[in-house]
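INFO  loader      accepted 1 record
INFO  loader      residues=188
INFO  predictor   begin
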Amino acid sequence: MNRTSPWLIALALALPAAHAAAQDKPSAKAAAPARAGFQEVTWDELVPKDWDPLKQFKDMNFGVLSDADPRAAAMLKKMRETWDNAPTNNAMDGKAIRIPGYVVPLEEGKSGLTEFLLVPYFGACIHSPPPPSNQIIHVRPREAAKGVKSMDAVWISGTLKTLRSDTFMGASSYRLEAVAIEIYTEKK
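INFO  predictor   done
INFO  writer      dumping tokens
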């Protein structure tokens, strides 16, 4: 019996989701001046214009592979390596930004979240595979974030750095020292 791997199913579902994640993520429609000197940015601005995360996977037929097929393991490994080493938009380094996203907790103390990943769409990093690293921001709040929990939609403000981090929930290409964390609300 030819059984399709759950990992391959997740990969097949995640590839289009990572490329078109704008449907599920809170979005800042266009970059615009934001609160207190922070430039509101979109997730697309973190990706170099010439990088296509799906380029080398477009001709793959996931439906014909099973768990036992070595091509399935090779494909997953290649995808992870490509996405974990995704290029950054170096023009964003050092910018004071405000960006919406979803919280993936990494470390929490009695006073609240002290470290988390910010991702562009609901469920990212909770289910495999996580998005490309240039779509994950490692956030370290100036003060612990109280009342913020897994997959809460938030606005984060702070200075963005192109700094790679590897965590148990995924690799990130950016770091943000958050000076403000607000629960996400849609603009009127």
